[in-house]
Recover the amino acids of this structure.
């Protein structure tokens, strides 16, 4: 990659400056410091100043396990240098992490395709408004995307080296140059990158699952394609060894966090709770289950899901698919009327929502288990991705200010263009080493996201390094270079 940057220095400098300008525009005009940002900052400040990984509650610091320590550690490091709650410094540093993602996407495209694809991937990443927008948000996304791209880059390099090492082992040539194609350093780095992803967000583990599934695919191929048992054994042993290195490197960073939770809360929690709740915080299981019987778009997340508990709910905002009958509508409206009295979901209210959920699931199980998850997945992928900007989330009603309506439409078209290019790139890249890993990652993450109650478009942003590299495949040219050298 260094050789390519030196060769086309003017191109990379110009695109880098354009990407930097785009990100600084969002940082200066639309910085996003939301409730989650302040929660992370509170944890970071308490950790830094008092040595307690906890949140401030009525003037007291209470230990918490609701958030993994990756992003609070990042904030604590910045606050230690620039001062407490200096979010401007946080966003500026995230800007440079996001530019790093652009170089990683370019390096991935270089490894898998050609120098032309690398330049295309760099431009697509640098000028991507969605990545740039989240660089201006004090949230986990920018770092998660960076380390996802880093892990994918090391994984592609590692699998290329694994193929070479397996071939040498079969030929008996490994002893001639034992350090030439050793794959384990790349998988060690890949595992550590995935470990950081998991420490930032629990769903970072999906990338580990995708890499593990790709290992199983290679394991199966090696077992059926090697006719000689001795050759088959050598290849399988090599795959098992590097797979173990990957798994240990990815999971070892969770050990201190797991031990801390066991000692502090007497609870085995290697990640974070499903609903980001503390050990003494109740979970609205009935309400959440009822929500999944109709939730299909992020507008409902903002209008209903995020407001419970704590804020009033306008039942007229519920879509028609939230009711199966007039009686069910009446029961739902009554439950919300009771909730609006004190803006809290009591155990009785939660039981009422659970009853409604059970009725709706029994009446239409395919809707609950198949159609609604598919709609949620589609919504997360196809949204205009303006959730951090002023446009109305109900952009399709065309009643927003003309300027912001235009922004929604343009962002939506840009998102569709990226996805269409990625789809075409995937279709034209069959047989390219490593592309199966991308498909597995996109598939597993999408299926996981379909199980969530809250379809938020930001949850698919972690897939954008793979989307961008797939789109860049269209610019690979006639002669594709599978560059397997380390950076």
């Amino acid at each position: 990659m260094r050789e390519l940057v030196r060769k086309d220095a003017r191109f990379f400098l110009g695109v880098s400056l354009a990407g930097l300008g785009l990100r600084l525009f969002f940082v200066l005009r639309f910085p996003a410091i939301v409730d989650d940002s302040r929660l992370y900052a509170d944890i970071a400040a308490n950790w830094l100043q008092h040595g307690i990984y906890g949140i401030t509650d009525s003037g007291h610091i209470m230990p918490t396990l609701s958030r993994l320590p990756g992003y609070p550690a990042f904030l604590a490091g910045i606050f230690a240098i620039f001062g407490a709650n200096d979010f401007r410094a946080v966003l500026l540093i995230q800007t440079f992490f996001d530019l790093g993602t652009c170089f990683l996407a370019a390096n991935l495209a270089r490894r898998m395709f050609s120098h032309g694809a690398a330049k295309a991937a760099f431009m697509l990443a640098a000028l991507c408004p969605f990545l740039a927008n989240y660089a201006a948000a004090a949230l986990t996304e920018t770092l998660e995307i960076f380390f996802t791209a880093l892990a994918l880059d090391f994984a592609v390099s590692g699998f290329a080296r694994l193929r070479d090492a397996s071939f040498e082992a079969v030929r008996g040539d490994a002893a001639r140059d034992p350090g030439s194609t050793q794959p384990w350093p790349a998988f060690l780095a890949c595992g550590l990158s995935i470990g950081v992803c998991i420490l930032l967000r629990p769903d970072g583990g999906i990338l580990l699952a995708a890499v593990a599934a790709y290992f199983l695919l290679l394991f199966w191929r090696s077992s059926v394609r090697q006719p000689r048992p001795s050759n088959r054994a050598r290849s399988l042993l090599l795959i098992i060894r590097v797979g173990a290195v990957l798994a240990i490197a990815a999971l070892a960073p969770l050990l201190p966090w797991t031990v801390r939770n066991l000692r502090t809360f007497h609870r085995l929690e290697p990640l974070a709770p499903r609903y980001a709740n503390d050990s003494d915080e109740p979970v609205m299981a009935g309400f959440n289950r009822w929500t999944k019987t109709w939730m299909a778009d992020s507008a409902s997340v903002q209008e209903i899901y995020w407001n419970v508990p704590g804020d009033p709910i306008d039942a007229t905002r519920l879509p028609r698919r939230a009711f199966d009958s007039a009686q069910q509508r009446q029961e739902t409206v009554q439950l919300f009327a009771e909730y609006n009295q004190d803006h809290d979901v009591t155990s009785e209210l939660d039981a009422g929502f659970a009853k409604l959920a059970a009725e709706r699931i029994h009446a239409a199980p395919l809707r609950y288990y198949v159609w609604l998850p598919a709609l949620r997945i589609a919504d997360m992928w196809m949204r205009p991705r303006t959730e951090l900007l002023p446009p109305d989330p109900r952009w399709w009603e065309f009643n927003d200010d003309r300027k912001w309506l235009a922004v929604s439409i343009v962002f939506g078209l840009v998102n569709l263009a990226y996805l269409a290019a990625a789809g075409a790139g995937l279709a034209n890249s069959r047989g390219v080493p490593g592309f199966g890993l991308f498909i597995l990652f996109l598939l597993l993450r999408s299926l996981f996201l379909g199980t969530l109650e809250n379809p938020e478009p930001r949850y698919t942003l972690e897939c954008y390094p793979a989307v961008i590299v797939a789109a860049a495949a269209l610019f690979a040219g006639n002669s594709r270079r599978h560059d397997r050298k380390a950076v």
